[in-house]
């Protein structure tokens, strides 16, 4: 979800889903519990059946937030590590970089984990975790956002990172801007309300910047902060719509946030007049596109993202070459853009089940 936090990105979602990243229910059958306090976490209760004789990967999953999008990524990691007796424990930083660093250090010092998957709050804030893990001989795989200085590079940037499953932020932003340009056709200016996860979130802020730059006639009249939490957007959007009653497009951080504004649009008599751009490709987002409630979304496949990250961890824990070392999360499947024309070809992996 953060891609579309993104994302993302996700957008985040936001997820809702993400909720791409919000606080939602689990998108799968995972029994994973998230640790919300520093240095505490609950085991996922992974299978103890060893299928191939590999060394079990005991994974600390250190994440910027816990929502239904991230929970499906965790399920993907579990699919890769559990057959050999591995397990996954989630540490939830809730968008707090200092908490993330502390939780990572606590996971390392506990001696319970031989692998880490990290979805950092921002690229630089993940560096202390990686450095501490490297000093302890624990391999790290990054998921969603890179760790380092660049959110564009897909190769490991910091020594200690053995694999990357991520969203190049400019590619994600251009996809959402392309959908926005389609939604804005015939409108000049095209008045847009945009959403970012946090004021400094790299994925969602780059989306809004790219929309301003690349969409002809774009006029971003207001930006709201949602933290991938549909309830925050549901509260903030009515005021934004009241301030800008002539808004024509809402560019959300994730499908769930896009859908969270539907009640406000109905109440204002503007449902169908404000086009909704999602991100993350949730089940409910796909359904909303099919029935015309949403205009479009950028596809994400969090289960496959997690499986790819989990395979990387298993290889590293067993002293094998990590191959592939990087996976572009935006290109892991097709179609990459979900619209009325392509929704029938898309198989969403996260969010509430589609009714019927």
TrEMBL record:
Stretches assigned to the Periplasmic binding protein domain: 65-321
Signal sequence region = 1-20
Compartments reported by the entry:
Cell envelope
Q: Known Gene3D superfamilies for this protein?
A: 3.40.50.2300
Q: Which UniProt keywords apply?
A: Signal
**Which molecular function term from Gene Ontology is one that the record holds?**
carbohydrate binding
Residue stretches spanning the membrane: none
Pfam families, sorted: Peripla_BP_4 (PF13407)
Q: Listed GO cellular component terms?
A: cell envelope
The segment annotated Disordered runs over 29-54
Listed CDD domains: PBP1_ABC_sugar_binding-like
Keyword check for Phosphoprotein, yes or no. no
Main localization of the protein? other
Which protein family is named in the record?
Belongs to the bacterial solute-binding protein 2 family.
- PANTHER family for this protein: D-ALLOSE-BINDING PERIPLASMIC PROTEIN-RELATED (PTHR46847:SF1)
Q: Which protein is depicted? A: Periplasmic binding protein domain-containing protein
Q: Which species is this UniProt entry from?
A: Capillimicrobium parvum
């Amino acid at each position: 979800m953060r891609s579309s936090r993104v994302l993302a990105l996700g957008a985040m979602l936001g997820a809702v889903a993400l909720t791409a990243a919000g606080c939602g229910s689990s998108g799968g059958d995972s029994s994973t519990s998230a640790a919300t306090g520093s240095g505490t976490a609950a085991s996922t209760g992974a299978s103890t059946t060893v299928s191939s004789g590999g060394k079990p990967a005991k994974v600390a999953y250190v994440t910027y937030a816990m929502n239904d999008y991230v929970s499906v990524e965790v399920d993907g990691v579990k699919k890769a590590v559990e057959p050999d007796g591995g397990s996954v424990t989630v540490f939830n930083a809730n968008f707090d970089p200092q908490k993330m660093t502390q939780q990572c250090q606590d996971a390392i010092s506990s001696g319970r984990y031989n692998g880490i998957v990290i979805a950092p709050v921002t690229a630089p804030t993940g560096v202390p975790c990686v450095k501490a893990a490297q000093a302890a001989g624990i391999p790290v795989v990054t998921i969603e956002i890179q760790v380092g200085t660049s959110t564009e590079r897909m190769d490991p940037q910091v020594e200690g990172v053995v694999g990357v499953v991520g969203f190049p932020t400019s590619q994600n932003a251009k996809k959402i801007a392309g959908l926005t340009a389609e939604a804005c056709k015939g409108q000049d200016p095209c008045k847009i309300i945009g959403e970012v996860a946090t004021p400094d979130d790299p994925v969602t802020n780059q989306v809004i910047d790219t929309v301003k730059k690349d969409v002809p006639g774009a006029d971003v009249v207001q930006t709201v902060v949602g933290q991938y939490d549909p309830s925050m957007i549901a509260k903030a959007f009515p005021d934004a719509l009241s301030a800008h009653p002539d808004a024509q497009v809402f560019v959300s951080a994730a499908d769930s946030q896009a859908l969270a504004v539907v009640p406000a649009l109905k109440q204002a008599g503007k449902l169908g007049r404000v086009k909704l751009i999602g991100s993350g490709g949730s089940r409910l987002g796909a359904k909303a596109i099919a029935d015309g409630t949403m205009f479009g979304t950028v596809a994400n496949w969090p289960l496959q993202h997690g499986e790819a990250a989990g395979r990387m961890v298993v290889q590293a824990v067993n002293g094998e070459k990590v191959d592939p070392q990087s996976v572009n999360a935006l290109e892991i499947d097709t179609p990459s853009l979900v619209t009325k024309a392509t929704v029938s070809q898309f198989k969403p992996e996260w969010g509430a089940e589609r009714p019927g």
